[in-house]
Amino acid sequence: MRGVVALLLALCAMPASAQEIVGDAIPKSLTGQPGDPARGRAIVANRSVGLCLLCHSGPIAEERFQGDLSPTLAGAGSRWSEGQLRLRIVDGSRLNPDTIMPPYFRTTGLQRVARNFDGKTILTAAQVEDVVAYLVTLKD
Ligand code: HEC
């Protein structure tokens, strides 16, 4: 029983400690596991989950009307390390307080959150890892 409690406590503590920011990056996976690039691509392409293409364009030929408010995602994997990409998805306002990019995995300090996102993150930790795994493959 004590062992189970200790395990649960360790699991609860994990996202916080795994989210440790070093410089301009979060070097460690939020889940402790590598993400899946194919699932990540689907999240980025999806207009109701990631919404990335509202602002960004990317090498996703089947999606029309991509955004031009932001740098293209093409080549993101050569411009940034995996850890740098992770922090940009988790909470870009850590790097640019005025950014319009939503913080996809920030749980505190959110203003005006839609009610169904209240207390939740926009993406789960596993979804963040999938998106990061996809972005890493975008070498150009
Ligand atoms: C509301 C607009 C918006 C949305 C939605 C958005 N972003 Fe961004 N993103 C930006 C802006 C603007 C920047 C430029 C950095 C800044 O704001 O300082 C940026 C920067 C980035 C960067 C760094 C780009 C570079 O090479 O400099 C990556 C990678 C990125 N976004 C990925 C994503 C992904 C993946 C999603 C979806 C899960 C997403 N963004 C959703 C606006 C957005």
- CATH fold-level label: Cytochrome Bc1 Complex, Chain D, domain 2
Question: What pattern of helices and strands is seen along the backbone?
Answer: HHHHHH
Describe the main β-sheet briefly: none
Strand content: under 5%
The CATH class is identified as Mainly Alpha
Q: What does this molecule look like?
A:
This protein has a single domain (2-136), classed as Cytochrome Bc1 Complex, Chain D, domain 2 (Orthogonal Bundle). The chain is globular. It is an all-alpha fold and 140 residues long. The chain has helices at residues 2-18, 37-45, 52-55, 76-79, 82-91, 125-136. It contains six helices and no strands. Residues 13-17 have low confidence and may be disordered. Helices cover 40% and strands 0% of the residues.
Quick recap:
By secondary structure, the protein is mainly α. It has 6 helices and no strands.
Give the secondary structure arrangement, pairings included:
Layout: H1 2-18, H2 37-45, H3 52-55, H4 76-79, H5 82-91, H6 125-136
Helix pairs in contact: 2-6, 5-6
The chain binds heme C.
The site of heme C (HEC) has 25 residues, from helix 3, helix 4, helix 5 and helix 6.
